[in-house]
What we know:
Layout: H1 26-35, H2 45-68, H3 78-103, H4 105-120, H5 126-156, H6 162-168
Amino acid sequence: MSAARVDCLPNSRSFSILGHFRDPFAFQKLLDRCIGFIHWDTESAFTWVKILLLVFTGTYYTLSCLCLTRIDPAEVPLDHFFGMWFLVGGGCSCFSQWYVLAIERRHLAKVIGFLTNLQQNGIDHPTRVRQRSRIVLYSIVHWTTNVSQTAVWAVTLLFTSSIAHATSNSYL
């Protein structure tokens, strides 16, 4: 009885362009420079944009929580009211994770450094060369999935801003 093949990707020759990366973590490192938390350099504009976005997001969620206390549930459709609470709850949950990553970025950098060093041991070993394109492809697929989920949630939670609803009422 033969074992079933569990690898769903075609032969790595199909992804030959991805095999040219010597560092399979190159995609993550590129993204981290732009939107990640490992590389923080106050001389870089990217770092200041990241800090500005963290402050903006924290302010937005604080205002959202305050505005939720001013909304009468009877005035809002139930799905929008639920969406407002979900937006704040889910958003604050994600924000707290990003905030912790920003604070603990040195530990994350050590983990990525360890994995990079581990990967560089025997970098030209045939097994590593053969798997390199798959690692890069999986990284790109994972990132694309996260971005698409963000787009889906943004559309799903449209019209559920507690700030917009609270400011549209005349009593504020």
